[in-house]
Task: structure prediction
Amino acid sequence: MPKTTILLFKKNINMRLRLVFVLLLGVLLSAYGHALQTPVKPAPDKVAKTIKIDSSRVEQRQIDRQAVDAYSKQKEFVYEETAPQNASWWQRLIAWLWDLIGRIFRGGNAGDGALLKYFFVFLKYFLIAVLVVGVAYGVLKLLGLDLRVLAKKPKSIEVPYEESLENIHEIDFDEQLDKAVQDGNYRLAVRLLYLKTLKRLSDRDMINWQPDKTNQTYVLELQNENHRKEFAELTYRFEYVWYGEFFIDKQHFEPIAQSFQQFNQQNR
Amino acid sequence: MEQEMFDQRTDLSQLSAAVAQIRETLGNIIVGQKDTIDLLIAGLLADGHILLEGVPGVAKTLSAKLMAKCISASFSRIQFTPDLMPSDVLGTAVFSPKTAEFQFRQGPIFGNIVLVDEINRAPAKTQSALFEAMEERQITVDGHTYKLEEPFMVLATQNPIEQEGTYRLPEAQLDRFLFKIEVKYPSLEEEIEILSKQHQHKPEEQLQELHAVLSVEQIKTLRATIKALVVEPKLLAFVAQITHETRHNKSLYLGASPRASLAMVNGAKALAAMGGRDFVTPDDIVRVAVPVLAHRVMLSPEKEMEGLTPADIITQIIKKIEVPR
Result:
Protein backbone atom coordinates (compact mmCIF):
# COMPACT_ATOMS: atom_id res chain seq x y z
CA MET A 1 0.00 0.00 0.00
CA PRO A 2 1.43 3.44 -0.88
CA LYS A 3 2.96 5.31 2.02
CA THR A 4 0.78 8.39 1.61
CA THR A 5 -2.32 6.25 1.67
CA ILE A 6 -1.17 4.55 4.85
CA LEU A 7 -0.46 7.94 6.43
CA LEU A 8 -3.83 9.30 5.35
CA PHE A 9 -5.49 6.17 6.63
CA LYS A 10 -3.73 6.44 9.98
CA LYS A 11 -4.68 10.11 10.18
CA ASN A 12 -8.29 9.33 9.41
CA ILE A 13 -8.36 6.48 11.90
CA ASN A 14 -6.89 8.74 14.61
CA MET A 15 -9.50 11.42 13.93
CA ARG A 16 -12.28 8.87 13.86
CA LEU A 17 -11.09 7.23 17.07
CA ARG A 18 -11.16 10.67 18.69
CA LEU A 19 -14.74 11.15 17.53
CA VAL A 20 -15.74 7.74 18.88
CA PHE A 21 -14.08 8.63 22.20
CA VAL A 22 -15.99 11.93 22.39
CA LEU A 23 -19.22 10.08 21.59
CA LEU A 24 -18.66 7.49 24.32
CA LEU A 25 -17.65 10.20 26.80
CA GLY A 26 -20.91 12.04 26.06
CA VAL A 27 -22.94 8.89 26.69
CA LEU A 28 -21.11 8.22 29.98
CA LEU A 29 -21.54 11.82 31.23
CA SER A 30 -25.21 11.75 30.37
CA ALA A 31 -25.66 8.49 32.30
CA TYR A 32 -23.78 9.96 35.26
CA GLY A 33 -25.99 13.10 35.26
CA HIS A 34 -29.11 10.96 35.21
CA ALA A 35 -27.82 8.97 38.16
CA LEU A 36 -27.25 12.18 40.16
CA GLN A 37 -30.82 13.32 39.59
CA THR A 38 -32.34 10.06 40.84
CA PRO A 39 -33.26 10.45 44.60
CA VAL A 40 -31.41 8.12 46.88
CA LYS A 41 -33.64 6.02 49.17
CA PRO A 42 -32.67 6.31 52.86
CA ALA A 43 -31.69 3.21 54.83
CA PRO A 44 -34.65 1.35 56.54
CA ASP A 45 -33.53 2.09 60.14
CA LYS A 46 -33.32 5.81 59.37
CA VAL A 47 -36.79 5.65 57.81
CA ALA A 48 -38.25 4.13 61.00
CA LYS A 49 -36.81 6.94 63.07
CA THR A 50 -38.21 9.71 60.94
CA ILE A 51 -41.82 8.42 60.46
CA LYS A 52 -44.42 10.38 62.37
CA ILE A 53 -47.49 8.41 63.34
CA ASP A 54 -50.84 10.16 62.84
CA SER A 55 -52.79 9.53 66.05
CA SER A 56 -55.82 11.70 65.26
CA ARG A 57 -59.27 10.05 65.12
CA VAL A 58 -60.59 9.08 61.74
CA GLU A 59 -64.24 9.53 60.98
CA GLN A 60 -65.71 7.12 58.51
CA ARG A 61 -68.08 8.76 56.09
CA GLN A 62 -70.91 6.88 54.38
CA ILE A 63 -71.75 7.19 50.70
CA ASP A 64 -75.05 8.82 50.02
CA ARG A 65 -76.74 6.16 47.88
CA GLN A 66 -79.59 8.41 46.86
CA ALA A 67 -77.24 11.05 45.56
CA VAL A 68 -75.32 8.41 43.56
CA ASP A 69 -78.54 7.07 42.02
CA ALA A 70 -79.58 10.58 41.14
CA TYR A 71 -76.27 11.31 39.44
CA SER A 72 -76.31 8.01 37.55
CA LYS A 73 -79.61 8.89 35.98
CA GLN A 74 -78.23 12.11 34.54
CA LYS A 75 -77.13 11.87 30.88
CA GLU A 76 -73.78 13.60 31.54
CA PHE A 77 -72.71 10.82 33.92
CA VAL A 78 -73.59 7.90 31.67
CA TYR A 79 -70.28 6.84 30.07
CA GLU A 80 -71.41 3.67 28.35
CA GLU A 81 -71.88 4.25 24.68
CA THR A 82 -74.54 2.19 23.00
CA ALA A 83 -75.11 2.08 19.30
CA PRO A 84 -78.02 4.26 18.35
CA GLN A 85 -81.19 2.46 17.36
CA ASN A 86 -81.77 2.05 13.59
CA ALA A 87 -78.22 3.36 12.81
CA SER A 88 -76.99 3.24 9.21
CA TRP A 89 -73.93 1.11 8.30
CA TRP A 90 -71.83 4.30 8.06
CA GLN A 91 -72.80 5.36 11.58
CA ARG A 92 -72.03 1.85 12.86
CA LEU A 93 -68.59 1.95 11.14
CA ILE A 94 -67.76 5.34 12.65
CA ALA A 95 -68.96 4.14 16.05
CA TRP A 96 -66.81 1.01 15.78
CA LEU A 97 -63.77 3.05 14.80
CA TRP A 98 -64.23 5.46 17.73
CA ASP A 99 -64.59 2.48 20.00
CA LEU A 100 -61.39 0.94 18.67
CA ILE A 101 -59.44 4.19 19.06
CA GLY A 102 -60.88 4.60 22.53
CA ARG A 103 -59.81 1.08 23.50
CA ILE A 104 -56.32 1.70 22.24
CA PHE A 105 -55.80 4.98 24.09
CA ARG A 106 -57.94 4.32 27.12
CA GLY A 107 -55.69 3.62 30.09
CA GLY A 108 -56.51 1.50 33.04
CA ASN A 109 -56.36 -2.21 33.70
CA ALA A 110 -55.29 -4.94 31.27
CA GLY A 111 -57.96 -5.52 28.77
CA ASP A 112 -59.00 -2.10 27.66
CA GLY A 113 -55.50 -0.56 27.35
CA ALA A 114 -53.64 -3.81 26.59
CA LEU A 115 -53.12 -3.04 22.94
CA LEU A 116 -51.66 0.36 23.72
CA LYS A 117 -49.48 -1.21 26.39
CA TYR A 118 -48.10 -3.80 23.96
CA PHE A 119 -47.61 -1.08 21.40
CA PHE A 120 -45.50 0.97 23.80
CA VAL A 121 -43.48 -2.08 24.86
CA PHE A 122 -42.81 -2.87 21.21
CA LEU A 123 -41.96 0.78 20.50
CA LYS A 124 -39.54 0.81 23.40
CA TYR A 125 -37.61 -2.26 22.21
CA PHE A 126 -37.77 -1.11 18.62
CA LEU A 127 -36.24 2.25 19.56
CA ILE A 128 -33.54 0.52 21.62
CA ALA A 129 -32.74 -1.76 18.66
CA VAL A 130 -32.62 1.21 16.28
CA LEU A 131 -30.34 3.05 18.70
CA VAL A 132 -27.97 0.10 19.06
CA VAL A 133 -27.80 -0.47 15.30
CA GLY A 134 -27.38 3.27 14.72
CA VAL A 135 -24.54 3.56 17.24
CA ALA A 136 -22.82 0.45 15.80
CA TYR A 137 -23.17 1.81 12.27
CA GLY A 138 -21.88 5.21 13.35
CA VAL A 139 -18.85 3.70 15.10
CA LEU A 140 -18.02 1.48 12.10
CA LYS A 141 -18.41 4.42 9.74
CA LEU A 142 -16.24 6.62 11.92
CA LEU A 143 -13.59 3.92 11.87
CA GLY A 144 -13.82 4.01 8.09
CA LEU A 145 -14.69 0.34 7.62
CA ASP A 146 -16.56 -0.72 4.52
CA LEU A 147 -19.71 -2.44 5.78
CA ARG A 148 -20.13 -4.22 2.45
CA VAL A 149 -17.06 -6.26 3.34
CA LEU A 150 -19.23 -8.10 5.89
CA ALA A 151 -21.71 -9.09 3.25
CA LYS A 152 -19.35 -9.85 0.38
CA LYS A 153 -16.52 -12.24 -0.21
CA PRO A 154 -13.18 -10.41 -0.25
CA LYS A 155 -11.34 -9.94 -3.54
CA SER A 156 -14.49 -10.28 -5.59
CA ILE A 157 -14.60 -7.70 -8.32
CA GLU A 158 -17.84 -6.82 -10.00
CA VAL A 159 -17.43 -6.41 -13.69
CA PRO A 160 -20.49 -6.66 -15.89
CA TYR A 161 -19.92 -9.70 -18.02
CA GLU A 162 -20.91 -9.34 -21.62
CA GLU A 163 -22.04 -12.62 -23.01
CA SER A 164 -20.56 -13.47 -26.34
CA LEU A 165 -22.86 -12.53 -29.15
CA GLU A 166 -21.36 -15.31 -31.16
CA ASN A 167 -21.13 -18.48 -29.15
CA ILE A 168 -19.13 -21.01 -31.14
CA HIS A 169 -21.35 -23.80 -29.86
CA GLU A 170 -24.40 -22.27 -31.48
CA ILE A 171 -23.07 -21.52 -34.94
CA ASP A 172 -23.99 -23.69 -37.90
CA PHE A 173 -20.50 -23.59 -39.37
CA ASP A 174 -21.12 -25.66 -42.50
CA GLU A 175 -24.03 -23.52 -43.61
CA GLN A 176 -22.25 -20.24 -42.89
CA LEU A 177 -19.00 -21.43 -44.47
CA ASP A 178 -20.81 -22.39 -47.69
CA LYS A 179 -22.49 -19.00 -47.75
CA ALA A 180 -19.21 -17.12 -47.16
CA VAL A 181 -17.45 -19.08 -49.93
CA GLN A 182 -20.37 -18.56 -52.33
CA ASP A 183 -20.28 -14.81 -51.56
CA GLY A 184 -16.55 -14.76 -52.19
CA ASN A 185 -15.97 -13.56 -48.61
CA TYR A 186 -12.88 -15.71 -48.04
CA ARG A 187 -11.68 -13.63 -45.10
CA LEU A 188 -14.85 -14.50 -43.21
CA ALA A 189 -14.54 -18.09 -44.38
CA VAL A 190 -11.07 -18.36 -42.77
CA ARG A 191 -12.48 -16.94 -39.57
CA LEU A 192 -15.29 -19.48 -39.56
CA LEU A 193 -12.81 -22.28 -40.19
CA TYR A 194 -10.78 -21.13 -37.20
CA LEU A 195 -13.82 -20.86 -34.93
CA LYS A 196 -14.97 -24.31 -36.10
CA THR A 197 -11.54 -25.71 -35.19
CA LEU A 198 -11.74 -24.08 -31.75
CA LYS A 199 -15.17 -25.67 -31.26
CA ARG A 200 -13.87 -29.10 -32.23
CA LEU A 201 -10.94 -28.78 -29.81
CA SER A 202 -13.31 -27.63 -27.10
CA ASP A 203 -15.72 -30.52 -27.76
CA ARG A 204 -12.83 -32.93 -27.36
CA ASP A 205 -11.71 -31.23 -24.13
CA MET A 206 -8.39 -30.38 -25.69
CA ILE A 207 -8.91 -26.72 -24.85
CA ASN A 208 -11.11 -24.94 -22.35
CA TRP A 209 -13.16 -22.46 -24.38
CA GLN A 210 -13.59 -19.09 -22.70
CA PRO A 211 -14.47 -15.88 -24.55
CA ASP A 212 -11.71 -13.94 -22.76
CA LYS A 213 -8.88 -16.23 -23.85
CA THR A 214 -6.52 -15.24 -26.62
CA ASN A 215 -5.46 -17.50 -29.48
CA GLN A 216 -2.00 -18.01 -28.01
CA THR A 217 -3.59 -19.18 -24.77
CA TYR A 218 -5.36 -21.94 -26.70
CA VAL A 219 -2.14 -22.86 -28.46
CA LEU A 220 -0.43 -23.29 -25.09
CA GLU A 221 -3.35 -25.31 -23.73
CA LEU A 222 -2.78 -28.13 -26.22
CA GLN A 223 -0.84 -30.88 -24.51
CA ASN A 224 0.26 -32.79 -27.58
CA GLU A 225 3.40 -31.26 -29.10
CA ASN A 226 2.39 -32.00 -32.72
CA HIS A 227 -1.12 -30.69 -32.22
CA ARG A 228 0.26 -27.54 -30.66
CA LYS A 229 2.64 -26.97 -33.56
CA GLU A 230 -0.05 -27.54 -36.19
CA PHE A 231 -2.61 -25.40 -34.39
CA ALA A 232 -0.01 -22.64 -33.98
CA GLU A 233 0.37 -22.67 -37.79
CA LEU A 234 -3.40 -22.42 -38.28
CA THR A 235 -3.54 -19.60 -35.72
CA TYR A 236 -0.79 -17.79 -37.60
CA ARG A 237 -2.81 -18.01 -40.84
CA PHE A 238 -6.05 -16.94 -39.20
CA GLU A 239 -4.38 -13.96 -37.51
CA TYR A 240 -2.80 -12.77 -40.73
CA VAL A 241 -6.08 -12.96 -42.60
CA TRP A 242 -8.37 -11.68 -39.84
CA TYR A 243 -6.38 -9.22 -37.72
CA GLY A 244 -3.85 -8.42 -40.46
CA GLU A 245 -6.61 -7.68 -42.96
CA PHE A 246 -4.69 -9.45 -45.69
CA PHE A 247 -6.60 -9.72 -48.94
CA ILE A 248 -7.41 -13.31 -49.72
CA ASP A 249 -8.88 -14.73 -52.93
CA LYS A 250 -10.08 -18.22 -53.88
CA GLN A 251 -6.62 -19.27 -54.97
CA HIS A 252 -5.13 -18.44 -51.56
CA PHE A 253 -8.13 -19.67 -49.62
CA GLU A 254 -8.10 -23.24 -50.90
CA PRO A 255 -4.75 -24.34 -49.40
CA ILE A 256 -5.64 -22.65 -46.12
CA ALA A 257 -9.03 -24.41 -46.01
CA GLN A 258 -7.27 -27.69 -46.80
CA SER A 259 -4.86 -27.31 -43.87
CA PHE A 260 -7.77 -26.60 -41.51
CA GLN A 261 -9.64 -29.70 -42.80
CA GLN A 262 -6.55 -31.86 -42.36
CA PHE A 263 -6.10 -30.72 -38.80
CA ASN A 264 -9.76 -31.32 -37.96
CA GLN A 265 -9.73 -34.77 -39.57
CA GLN A 266 -6.70 -35.73 -37.48
CA ASN A 267 -8.58 -34.77 -34.34
CA ARG A 268 -11.80 -36.63 -35.08
CA MET B 1 2.64 -19.74 -51.31
CA GLU B 2 0.92 -18.83 -48.03
CA GLN B 3 4.18 -17.59 -46.58
CA GLU B 4 4.70 -15.39 -49.64
CA MET B 5 1.21 -14.01 -49.33
CA PHE B 6 1.77 -13.04 -45.71
CA ASP B 7 5.27 -11.62 -45.98
CA GLN B 8 4.88 -9.13 -48.77
CA ARG B 9 3.40 -6.07 -47.10
CA THR B 10 5.86 -4.36 -44.71
CA ASP B 11 9.60 -4.69 -44.45
CA LEU B 12 10.38 -5.29 -40.81
CA SER B 13 13.82 -6.80 -41.36
CA GLN B 14 15.72 -3.72 -40.16
CA LEU B 15 13.55 -3.51 -37.08
CA SER B 16 13.90 -7.21 -36.30
CA ALA B 17 17.68 -7.01 -36.63
CA ALA B 18 17.88 -3.96 -34.38
CA VAL B 19 15.62 -5.54 -31.76
CA ALA B 20 17.65 -8.75 -31.77
CA GLN B 21 20.84 -6.75 -31.32
CA ILE B 22 19.48 -4.68 -28.44
CA ARG B 23 18.12 -7.81 -26.77
CA GLU B 24 21.50 -9.44 -27.05
CA THR B 25 23.40 -6.38 -25.81
CA LEU B 26 21.16 -5.90 -22.81
CA GLY B 27 20.85 -9.62 -22.17
CA ASN B 28 24.63 -9.95 -21.94
CA ILE B 29 24.75 -7.71 -18.91
CA ILE B 30 21.28 -7.93 -17.39
CA VAL B 31 20.45 -11.42 -16.27
CA GLY B 32 16.83 -12.46 -16.75
CA GLN B 33 14.39 -9.52 -16.89
CA LYS B 34 13.37 -10.47 -20.45
CA ASP B 35 9.99 -8.78 -20.13
CA THR B 36 11.64 -5.62 -18.84
CA ILE B 37 14.03 -5.56 -21.79
CA ASP B 38 11.20 -6.17 -24.29
CA LEU B 39 9.07 -3.41 -22.81
CA LEU B 40 12.03 -1.02 -22.80
CA ILE B 41 12.54 -1.68 -26.51
CA ALA B 42 8.79 -1.40 -27.16
CA GLY B 43 8.74 1.94 -25.34
CA LEU B 44 11.60 3.23 -27.47
CA LEU B 45 9.90 2.12 -30.69
CA ALA B 46 6.49 3.47 -29.63
CA ASP B 47 7.92 6.91 -28.84
CA GLY B 48 6.99 6.72 -25.18
CA HIS B 49 8.50 7.45 -21.80
CA ILE B 50 9.16 4.65 -19.36
CA LEU B 51 9.02 4.45 -15.59
CA LEU B 52 10.99 1.63 -14.00
CA GLU B 53 9.91 0.75 -10.50
CA GLY B 54 11.56 -1.65 -8.14
CA VAL B 55 13.29 -2.00 -4.80
CA PRO B 56 16.91 -0.84 -4.61
CA GLY B 57 19.45 -3.08 -6.31
CA VAL B 58 17.45 -4.75 -9.06
CA ALA B 59 19.29 -3.05 -11.96
CA LYS B 60 16.76 -0.35 -12.79
CA THR B 61 19.31 2.38 -13.38
CA LEU B 62 21.62 -0.05 -15.12
CA SER B 63 18.84 -1.11 -17.51
CA ALA B 64 18.07 2.51 -18.32
CA LYS B 65 21.74 3.34 -18.86
CA LEU B 66 22.19 0.28 -21.07
CA MET B 67 19.15 1.22 -23.11
CA ALA B 68 20.55 4.70 -23.59
CA LYS B 69 23.93 3.26 -24.51
CA CYS B 70 22.31 1.25 -27.33
CA ILE B 71 21.39 4.47 -29.10
CA SER B 72 23.90 6.89 -30.51
CA ALA B 73 22.08 9.95 -29.25
CA SER B 74 22.71 12.59 -26.62
CA PHE B 75 22.22 11.26 -23.12
CA SER B 76 21.72 13.18 -19.91
CA ARG B 77 21.05 12.17 -16.38
CA ILE B 78 19.23 13.98 -13.62
CA GLN B 79 19.40 12.70 -10.07
CA PHE B 80 16.14 13.74 -8.46
CA THR B 81 16.63 14.91 -4.89
CA PRO B 82 14.23 16.58 -2.42
CA ASP B 83 15.88 20.00 -2.93
CA LEU B 84 15.93 19.89 -6.74
CA MET B 85 14.39 22.95 -8.40
CA PRO B 86 12.53 23.11 -11.75
CA SER B 87 15.31 25.33 -13.11
CA ASP B 88 17.82 22.57 -12.32
CA VAL B 89 15.91 20.39 -14.78
CA LEU B 90 14.84 22.84 -17.47
CA GLY B 91 17.65 25.40 -17.44
CA THR B 92 17.86 29.00 -16.43
CA ALA B 93 18.55 32.47 -17.83
CA VAL B 94 22.03 33.69 -16.94
CA PHE B 95 23.19 37.30 -17.30
CA SER B 96 26.02 37.67 -19.75
CA PRO B 97 28.27 40.66 -18.97
CA LYS B 98 29.62 40.55 -22.53
CA THR B 99 26.32 41.12 -24.23
CA ALA B 100 24.60 42.67 -21.23
CA GLU B 101 21.69 40.31 -21.87
CA PHE B 102 20.21 37.29 -20.24
CA GLN B 103 21.09 34.07 -22.04
CA PHE B 104 19.24 30.81 -21.57
CA ARG B 105 21.44 28.00 -20.36
CA GLN B 106 19.88 24.64 -21.22
CA GLY B 107 19.22 22.19 -18.44
CA PRO B 108 19.71 18.42 -18.59
CA ILE B 109 16.23 17.95 -20.05
CA PHE B 110 17.79 18.88 -23.40
CA GLY B 111 18.88 15.42 -24.41
CA ASN B 112 17.55 12.62 -26.58
CA ILE B 113 17.55 10.09 -23.80
CA VAL B 114 17.05 11.57 -20.34
CA LEU B 115 17.58 9.33 -17.37
CA VAL B 116 15.68 10.66 -14.38
CA ASP B 117 17.01 8.63 -11.50
CA GLU B 118 14.93 8.24 -8.35
CA ILE B 119 12.20 10.42 -9.82
CA ASN B 120 9.92 10.17 -6.80
CA ARG B 121 12.45 11.72 -4.43
CA ALA B 122 11.69 15.22 -5.73
CA PRO B 123 8.55 17.08 -4.64
CA ALA B 124 5.57 17.83 -6.92
CA LYS B 125 6.90 21.32 -7.73
CA THR B 126 9.90 19.83 -9.51
CA GLN B 127 7.87 17.03 -11.08
CA SER B 128 5.63 19.59 -12.75
CA ALA B 129 8.66 20.90 -14.66
CA LEU B 130 8.55 17.67 -16.65
CA PHE B 131 4.87 17.89 -17.68
CA GLU B 132 5.28 20.07 -20.74
CA ALA B 133 8.52 18.41 -21.79
CA MET B 134 7.12 14.90 -21.62
CA GLU B 135 3.87 15.58 -23.44
CA GLU B 136 4.61 18.42 -25.83
CA ARG B 137 8.34 17.83 -26.33
CA GLN B 138 9.09 21.46 -25.53
CA ILE B 139 9.69 23.66 -22.51
CA THR B 140 8.65 27.23 -21.79
CA VAL B 141 10.90 29.46 -19.68
CA ASP B 142 10.48 33.23 -19.25
CA GLY B 143 7.92 33.32 -22.04
CA HIS B 144 10.17 31.56 -24.54
CA THR B 145 9.38 28.10 -25.87
CA TYR B 146 12.26 25.78 -26.63
CA LYS B 147 11.65 22.67 -28.72
CA LEU B 148 13.27 19.46 -27.58
CA GLU B 149 15.12 17.42 -30.14
CA GLU B 150 13.59 14.22 -31.51
CA PRO B 151 13.79 11.48 -30.37
CA PHE B 152 13.07 12.50 -26.81
CA MET B 153 12.61 9.78 -24.24
CA VAL B 154 12.46 9.98 -20.48
CA LEU B 155 13.63 6.87 -18.69
CA ALA B 156 12.78 7.28 -15.03
CA THR B 157 13.49 5.01 -12.12
CA GLN B 158 11.82 4.98 -8.75
CA ASN B 159 11.57 2.98 -5.58
CA PRO B 160 8.11 1.87 -4.50
CA ILE B 161 6.21 4.58 -2.62
CA GLU B 162 6.51 2.60 0.62
CA GLN B 163 10.24 3.31 0.70
CA GLU B 164 11.56 6.07 2.95
CA GLY B 165 11.91 9.59 1.50
CA THR B 166 9.68 9.12 -1.52
CA TYR B 167 6.72 11.12 -2.81
CA ARG B 168 3.82 9.85 -4.86
CA LEU B 169 4.09 11.17 -8.41
CA PRO B 170 1.23 13.42 -9.59
CA GLU B 171 -1.43 11.59 -11.63
CA ALA B 172 -0.84 13.97 -14.54
CA GLN B 173 2.77 12.90 -14.65
CA LEU B 174 2.08 9.19 -14.30
CA ASP B 175 -0.30 9.46 -17.24
CA ARG B 176 2.59 10.73 -19.38
CA PHE B 177 4.55 7.50 -18.99
CA LEU B 178 3.76 4.93 -21.67
CA PHE B 179 4.72 1.98 -19.44
CA LYS B 180 5.47 1.46 -15.81
CA ILE B 181 7.71 -1.58 -15.68
CA GLU B 182 7.95 -3.31 -12.35
CA VAL B 183 11.41 -4.76 -11.99
CA LYS B 184 11.16 -7.84 -9.82
CA TYR B 185 13.79 -9.73 -7.87
CA PRO B 186 15.67 -12.31 -9.94
CA SER B 187 14.97 -16.00 -9.46
CA LEU B 188 17.46 -18.20 -7.59
CA GLU B 189 19.03 -19.43 -10.85
CA GLU B 190 19.25 -15.90 -12.18
CA GLU B 191 20.84 -14.67 -8.97
CA ILE B 192 23.50 -17.38 -9.21
CA GLU B 193 24.14 -16.33 -12.80
CA ILE B 194 24.46 -12.68 -11.72
CA LEU B 195 27.00 -13.67 -9.11
CA SER B 196 29.03 -15.83 -11.46
CA LYS B 197 29.04 -13.13 -14.15
CA GLN B 198 29.65 -10.08 -12.04
CA HIS B 199 31.76 -11.06 -9.07
CA GLN B 200 34.89 -10.22 -11.06
CA HIS B 201 33.66 -7.52 -13.41
CA LYS B 202 31.31 -4.77 -12.44
CA PRO B 203 28.54 -4.18 -14.99
CA GLU B 204 29.69 -0.55 -15.16
CA GLU B 205 32.97 -1.77 -16.67
CA GLN B 206 31.10 -3.76 -19.29
CA LEU B 207 28.98 -0.71 -20.00
CA GLN B 208 32.04 1.19 -21.23
CA GLU B 209 32.70 -1.44 -23.88
CA LEU B 210 29.23 -1.23 -25.42
CA HIS B 211 28.60 0.30 -28.80
CA ALA B 212 25.45 1.95 -30.07
CA VAL B 213 23.10 -0.22 -32.08
CA LEU B 214 20.72 2.40 -33.44
CA SER B 215 21.22 5.90 -34.71
CA VAL B 216 18.76 8.75 -34.25
CA GLU B 217 17.74 8.52 -37.92
CA GLN B 218 17.16 4.78 -37.65
CA ILE B 219 14.92 5.28 -34.63
CA LYS B 220 12.88 7.83 -36.55
CA THR B 221 12.49 5.38 -39.46
CA LEU B 222 11.50 2.50 -37.19
CA ARG B 223 8.97 4.67 -35.39
CA ALA B 224 7.44 5.69 -38.70
CA THR B 225 7.18 2.01 -39.70
CA ILE B 226 5.42 1.17 -36.46
CA LYS B 227 2.96 4.01 -36.83
CA ALA B 228 1.82 2.51 -40.14
CA LEU B 229 0.97 -0.93 -38.69
CA VAL B 230 -2.54 -2.31 -39.10
CA VAL B 231 -4.94 -2.37 -36.18
CA GLU B 232 -8.25 -4.05 -36.95
CA PRO B 233 -11.24 -1.87 -35.89
CA LYS B 234 -12.53 -4.57 -33.53
CA LEU B 235 -9.21 -4.45 -31.70
CA LEU B 236 -9.53 -0.69 -31.28
CA ALA B 237 -12.96 -1.35 -29.75
CA PHE B 238 -11.35 -3.97 -27.51
CA VAL B 239 -8.83 -1.40 -26.24
CA ALA B 240 -11.56 1.19 -25.72
CA GLN B 241 -13.66 -1.35 -23.84
CA ILE B 242 -10.81 -2.13 -21.43
CA THR B 243 -10.16 1.56 -20.74
CA HIS B 244 -13.87 2.28 -20.45
CA GLU B 245 -14.27 -0.48 -17.90
CA THR B 246 -11.55 1.03 -15.68
CA ARG B 247 -13.70 4.15 -15.41
CA HIS B 248 -16.76 2.25 -14.20
CA ASN B 249 -15.16 -0.41 -12.08
CA LYS B 250 -16.15 -0.18 -8.43
CA SER B 251 -12.70 -1.31 -7.33
CA LEU B 252 -11.08 1.70 -8.95
CA TYR B 253 -11.23 5.24 -7.63
CA LEU B 254 -9.66 6.72 -10.77
CA GLY B 255 -9.94 5.19 -14.23
CA ALA B 256 -7.64 5.46 -17.23
CA SER B 257 -7.62 8.38 -19.67
CA PRO B 258 -7.98 8.35 -23.48
CA ARG B 259 -4.22 8.86 -23.50
CA ALA B 260 -4.02 5.41 -21.91
CA SER B 261 -6.03 3.92 -24.79
CA LEU B 262 -3.64 5.48 -27.28
CA ALA B 263 -0.70 4.21 -25.25
CA MET B 264 -2.14 0.69 -25.33
CA VAL B 265 -2.52 0.78 -29.10
CA ASN B 266 0.99 2.22 -29.62
CA GLY B 267 2.56 -0.23 -27.20
CA ALA B 268 0.75 -3.16 -28.83
CA LYS B 269 1.93 -2.00 -32.27
CA ALA B 270 5.54 -1.93 -31.07
CA LEU B 271 5.23 -5.45 -29.63
CA ALA B 272 3.61 -6.67 -32.87
CA ALA B 273 6.50 -5.28 -34.90
CA MET B 274 8.98 -6.87 -32.50
CA GLY B 275 7.15 -10.15 -33.10
CA GLY B 276 7.67 -9.75 -36.85
CA ARG B 277 4.07 -8.83 -37.64
CA ASP B 278 2.75 -5.69 -39.28
CA PHE B 279 -0.59 -5.98 -37.52
CA VAL B 280 -1.73 -6.12 -33.92
CA THR B 281 -3.34 -9.16 -32.29
CA PRO B 282 -5.33 -9.34 -29.04
CA ASP B 283 -2.28 -10.97 -27.42
CA ASP B 284 -0.29 -7.77 -27.96
CA ILE B 285 -3.01 -5.71 -26.32
CA VAL B 286 -3.37 -8.05 -23.38
CA ARG B 287 0.40 -8.04 -22.91
CA VAL B 288 0.66 -4.25 -22.70
CA ALA B 289 -2.53 -3.68 -20.71
CA VAL B 290 -0.99 -3.95 -17.23
CA PRO B 291 2.22 -1.95 -17.94
CA VAL B 292 0.11 0.77 -19.60
CA LEU B 293 -2.80 0.94 -17.17
CA ALA B 294 -1.57 -0.10 -13.73
CA HIS B 295 0.13 3.23 -12.95
CA ARG B 296 -2.70 5.33 -14.39
CA VAL B 297 -5.54 3.97 -12.28
CA MET B 298 -6.11 4.36 -8.54
CA LEU B 299 -7.58 1.71 -6.32
CA SER B 300 -10.54 2.46 -4.09
CA PRO B 301 -9.45 2.63 -0.41
CA GLU B 302 -11.40 -0.55 0.41
CA LYS B 303 -9.62 -2.59 -2.24
CA GLU B 304 -6.29 -1.11 -1.20
CA MET B 305 -6.98 -2.25 2.37
CA GLU B 306 -7.83 -5.72 1.06
CA GLY B 307 -4.31 -5.89 -0.35
CA LEU B 308 -5.25 -5.82 -4.02
CA THR B 309 -3.05 -4.06 -6.57
CA PRO B 310 -4.06 -2.13 -9.71
CA ALA B 311 -2.53 -4.94 -11.77
CA ASP B 312 -4.94 -7.43 -10.13
CA ILE B 313 -7.93 -5.31 -11.09
CA ILE B 314 -6.69 -4.74 -14.66
CA THR B 315 -6.20 -8.50 -15.05
CA GLN B 316 -9.71 -9.14 -13.76
CA ILE B 317 -11.15 -6.53 -16.13
CA ILE B 318 -9.43 -8.12 -19.13
CA LYS B 319 -10.72 -11.54 -18.13
CA LYS B 320 -14.27 -10.27 -18.28
CA ILE B 321 -14.03 -8.81 -21.77
CA GLU B 322 -14.47 -11.00 -24.80
CA VAL B 323 -11.47 -11.19 -27.09
CA PRO B 324 -12.51 -10.11 -30.60
CA ARG B 325 -12.14 -13.02 -32.98
